[in-house]
Write a structure and sequence with these properties.
This protein is mainly α. It has 2 domains: 186 residues, MFS general substrate transporter like domains (Growth Hormone, Chain: A); 193 residues, MFS general substrate transporter like domains (Growth Hormone, Chain: A). The protein is 74% helix and 0% strand.
């Protein structure tokens, strides 16, 4: 294999329509990279931004909608959402293959339509079993959507899809925060009408996202090589290993949103308002520095360096948090804030490496199928993360924080071996 050529970058796909001509002079916001140049990348960024506003709405207010408006118990909501998460895992790979064969834009539009209808249907839910049915359909469509949009990001991402994906993560965090703020208003009103508006608002963002995606030029599927296996992702053991290890590293994403709030409130003398401050700091750092952190992570070697650094930084950040249990409020606050900043730096590196591995190790003709597999790995680890973090960081306390940080170091050190194994087994597809 040519060391100068990244796997999965050949003949990603061609568009049927003529590309739009760039405008001159470029506006300063384009020149500074605040928004992409006019064309498919700008349309994708706009579509995902709108969609993430809805996600921020839903993720912040969904549990309260189901308990205070529908009348379900907390246990019923947890059981239904857990079941839906597991059911949703089965959709990624087959829908990803459909996107590879039939077209990513068309497949993504179908998943958005299903998401819009399923989400809107939640306002009609009145019983537990109907809730389980609808929420499972919603999660199936969500997993399918993630798999089908992967080839769009790869196909329209230009020479550096990892950098474009980093840009999307930064703007999506901003959009999600805006949605969460709007959900705060709904929670304050605490009425049936307000909660219904929250759910319907999220459904509307799926429809709005579809309208923007429909303006994209068609991305022609990449022909599969002769004798290529139809379900190649499921037989790619090296890639599955990378996916599993990357999924374990992404457990870090719930450290600040799940374990840390419980730690601050239950195990330290730090003020409770620090929970919100930590969330804001994490979001601001991601928005400001995710694209910059992705520089240099445009190859497997760059991803290897990033995951090694990330594991070590996670240990340092979690060690800072671990020692705050017996400190004064001021000292605990200072060290927790320092831990959040350090942890977020590791998050930036880990996310950029994950983007690169997702795209770079997947063959061009099967980007959707491999995106579905990658999403399945993340979904499985996300399902177990709250229990693991609750047991180690919250119940066990300071030693648990250190054990979890050490676990991230071990995974970060193991990743390079899996990545190199995957590199050796890549097949260069003909141009």
């Amino acid at each position: 294999m040519d060391n100068n050529q990244k796997p999965g970058t050949q003949a990603v796909g061609t568009t049927v329509d003529e590309p739009e001509k760039p405008e001159f002079p470029q506006p300063w916001v384009v020149a500074r990279g605040l928004i992409p140049e006019r064309g498919p990348r700008r349309l994708l960024a706009l579509a995902f931004f709108v969609n993430m506003i809805g996600n921020g709405l839903y993720m912040t207010g969904a549990a309260l909608f189901f308990t205070r408006s529908v009348g379900l118990s907390v246990a019923q909501v947890g059981l239904g959402m857990g079941a839906a998460s597991l059911v949703g895992l089965v959709a990624g790979i087959p829908v990803g293959r459909l996107a590879d064969v039939r077209g990513a834009r068309e497949t993504y539009l179908v998943t958005l339509a299903v998401q819009a209808v399923a989400m809107a249907s939640l306002v009609l839910v009145q019983t537990f079993w109907l809730f389980v049915l609808v929420i499972c359909v919603t999660q199936l469509a969500n997993s399918a959507s993630v798999a089908s949009r992967g080839p769009l990001i790869r196909g329209f991402g230009g020479a550096s899809p990892t950098k474009f994906r980093a840009y999307l993560r930064a703007t999506n965090n901003l959009a999600g925060s805006a949605g969460a703020l709007a959900a705060g208003v709904v929670v304050h009103l605490d009425t049936r009408a307000a909660y219904a508006a929250l759910i319907l608002g999220n459904a509307f963002t799926f429809a709005a996202c579809a309208l923007v995606i429909a303006r994209l030029p068609r991305l022609a599927p990449v022909p599969a090589p002769p004798m290529a296996d139809r379900w190649v992702a499921l037989k790619d053991k090296p890639y599955m290993t990378v996916t599993m290890l990357d999924g374990l590293l992404t457990m870090q994403g719930q450290v600040l949103v799940f374990a840390l709030p419980l730690w601050i409130v239950g195990q330290t003398d730090a003020p409770r308002w620090l929970v919100g401050v930590c969330a804001v700091i994490n979001t601001l750092i991601v928005v400001a520095f995710q694209v910059r952190a992705s520089r240099g992570i445009d190859s497997n070697a760059g991803a290897i360096r990033a995951v090694r650094r990330a594991g070590l930084v996670f240990l340092l950040g979690m060690a800072l948090i671990a020692v705050t249990g017996d400190l004064s409020p001021a000292a605990a606050t200072a060290l927790i804030l320092a831990g959040v900043v350090v942890h977020t730096v590791g998050e930036l590196w880990q996310a950029a490496a994950s983007f690169e591995l997702n795209f770079g190790l997947a063959p061009a003709h099967a980007q959707g199928q491999y995106s579905g597999l990658f999403g399945m790995g993340h979904g499985l680890t996300n399902a177990i993360t709250p229990s693991v973090l609750g047991l180690l960081c919250v119940t066990w306390g300071a030693p648990g924080w250190l054990v979890m940080g050490g676990f991230f170091v071990v995974v970060g050190m193991a990743m390079p071996y899996a990545i190199r194994w995957a590199e050796r087994t890549r097949v260069v597809e003909p141009r």
